[in-house]
Amino acid sequence: MELPALPLPQAVDALIHWLQHNLDPVFGPAKTLTVFLDDVIRGWIRLVPPWLLVAVVSVLLAWRRSFVAGAIVGAALLLILNQGYWRAAIDTSSLAMVSTAISLCLGVPLGMVMAESRLARALATPVLDYMQSTPAFVYLIPSVLFLGVGTAPGVFATVMFALPPVARTLLLGLDLTPASNIEAAQAFGASRIQILFKVKLPAALPYLGAGINQSVMMALSMVVVCSLIGARGLGVDVITALSQMNLRLGIESGVSVVLLAIVFDHVFSPNQRGERGKR
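Request: output the structure for the sequence above.
Response:
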């Protein structure tokens, strides 16, 4: 005997219909804000001459981290510039930074609420599991459905893909706050909110730094995929190479993506050298 199928498709259709008719006032301003932020960041980066930007980033990394890190990032940026992918790399970087910023704005409060509420943790954990296990291409469908094509749906899909690491790593850091620190704060009469912001959150900052690094890397990988729905950047060249079976273009654009990932990894990785010096 076959069991009757659950009406899951009908429920999904009803949910989509409700969202389209009731949240349109939200999607419109969100799309406008996203495009505005991307235009501002991309415009400011393009105002700086490429050689000057390479020099500044390399020197800052050499001073903040190590000479090797600065040299690696400088060489990667120069190679991107040499191969003619500088403008595409700027477009990709802008989308990744906007997506990461939005992921932080949503993920940090979510991680804090999950740390303080068992109910919120129980409700949010399966949602985060779903977001992390869903194939990246699936996020493109609701993005196009609600926001059309272009920059905004690309950012929306990237945020859905890059948000979980921020919330999860911050939650881990808050949970691992030494009990002695919490007890000392309680002994001085600190409230629950004061303990969260003045004791737990500072102790969790290294974990949040690791989460930001993972969020940036995931955003970068997703932005490339989002070129399928009209997002600009290096993904356009990758998709063009695939559609034309152009191996040379595919290798060039793929190497540029890898080089940009190396740059982002070094720029946004936690400063381990500084922590060792404190110890």
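Residues 273-279 have pLDDT under 50 and may be disordered.
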